[in-house]
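Work Package 3 (structural annotation) set out to generate three-dimensional models for the target panel prioritized at the project kickoff. During this period the team completed the workflow that converts sequence records into discrete structure tokens, so that structures can be stored uniformly alongside our sequence database. As a representative example, we reproduce one entry of 426 residues exactly as it appears in the project archive.
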Amino acid sequence: MPHNPVLTLMTSPTRPNRALLCCLALLVSGCAPDPADNSPKTSSSSSGSATGEAKTAELAISEREVATDPDGKPVTLFQLTNSHGMEVEVISWGAVVLAIRVPDRDNHFENVTLGFEKVEGYFEPGPYFGAICGRYSNRIAKGLFSIGDKKYQLATNNDANHLHGGDQGFNRRAWTGKAVKKDGAVGVALKLVSPDGEENYPGTLTVDVTYWLTENSELAIEYKATTDKPTVLNLTNHCYWNLAGAGNGTILDHHLTLDCDKFLPVSDSLIPTGKPAAVAGSAMDFTSTQPIGSRIKQVKGGYDHCYVINGADGSLKPVAEIYDPGSGRVMEILTTEPGIQFYTGNFLDGKPANGSYPLNGGFCLECQHFPDSPNQPDFPSTLLKPGETYSQITIHRFSVRPDETDASAPAPQDADGGDAKKKSTE
């Protein structure tokens, strides 16, 4: 990030009196800089603060009520800011990330997450913009699973399957939140208690999710959960990203790299068919950097697949890097999870119910366990028992890359086969 120029008086050991006189002259004339005024001056887009407004000089957090939820409870918005001007906005409803504003290579700030214009848009079923999904994010085949000899039937809210926790998952629940701070970060700690039998899941589940904004321009998400009965659990955040800025064309020219040698092939209803398959030699291969749209026509319906993270062992590992050549924005993802769901906004259709964003107007990279794990014994277990604590950490790290020209990268194509970069600027 660029810093303010600092006035430095260079003194010569042979001329101390002249240096002293210079200092006195500056102070008397009022030209010396105020030592407390060291906040970086930046410009920001219309989605953030006014253009040219000085950004904060330190970590800060504020909160205010912005709406009333369907149950008559207040919805609180928390705004986190670091000294570089990065801003994160989170609401208590659904633990939703409303906005993340980061600079491009010209230091212009813009929101890079998709969402609704009004908070009330999150009260209705929709595309899960920015929300915490649970109890079980992703799909469970036919909404059925067993724990021991007991079978459970969940809502089938995605054709014949269960998706993201059911008819009213965690994305449409009122969480409680409070501001928190630690060295080098500010955050919001959100809590939700899901009663025994809610959406027909067993056990009273207590979930804690904390969003941290760090001085390293990271959004870190920490998850913890406990239960009083055996249950299944798979939590994730469902941010849709467009590093060019939310609403600025498609993401097909974004460059993606994944540290994943395997992915989970799926059926027509997007349920994993069994064992992981190698990505090598296929359109699923992002082990070397590729524009998202360069081979999307080869993937039926677009990307909506869980990738197996190489060497996943529960420790924090880097798994993904996304780069937008137009803005220079870079996002890196690190996680403790074994899988990452890559989704290219295949159901965005430009309609208000989906935020009016176009097909492929955003992408998701959701760190999680595998889909349908309760029914696939070879997958990492998602069973949580009393006395155990579910924990997960996922970090999104933002930076800027200088202007580069990568002539070797294949041109991205949209779903109709056209030049995505050209179409996105029309």
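The two ends are 31 Å apart (CA to CA).
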